[in-house]
Amino acid sequence: MKVIRLLVMLGLVVVVGMQLRVCFRRPMTQMPAPELSASRWFNGEAVQMQSLRGKLVLLDFWAVW
Description:
The protein has 65 residues and is mainly α. The chain is 34% helix and 6% strand. It has a two-stranded antiparallel sheet. A hairpin with an 8-residue loop joins strand 1 and strand 2 (47-48). The longest helix has 22 residues, at 2-23.
């Protein structure tokens, strides 16, 4: 019984620690976007982020598992 209680408490400490790490992360607002390049685009041309500066860009990341 003591072992189970100890394991549960240890699990809670790990989960809370992981959540605190996320809470204290610096927000990414007002920071430049990281450099991305798309080698295969819908029109077949490569695209660099630098060429999209000043334009509205919507990135939609999705996957089917």
